[in-house]
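User: Predict Iron-sulfur cluster insertion protein ErpA's structure from this.
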Amino acid sequence: MTVPPRVTDRAFARLAEIAAEAEGPHALRVAVEGGGCSGFQYDIKLDEPAEDDLVLEKDGQKVLIDSVSLPFLADAVIDFSDDLIGARFVVENPNATSSCGCGTSFSI
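Assistant:
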C-alpha cells in the first residue's frame, strides 16, 4: 500500500495566505514530470482539482496529487520554506536517491 504524502501546517498556512490575496484557483498541485537535470522534476502550481486527484485538505486549503505522480511522492513531505534562497514550496522525498542543488529535480 502506498503511503500518501503529508502536507505541513506551514504549507497549508501559506496556501491560506495565497487564497486571501489572489483570484483564480487556490489548490496547490504537486506533480512529477520527466525532465530536469536528474531525470524527474516537480511541477508545483495553483490548479483546479481533477477527477483522479488525491486531495489533501486542511481548513479548506487543498493540495492535489494526480494518480501518475502519487507513487513518486509516497511518504513525501510537502512544506513551505522561506529562507535566503527564496520563499517556495518544497518536497522532502524519501524516494529520491539523488537531487540537484536547487531541489526541483531528482532521480529514483
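The longest strand covers residues 27-34.
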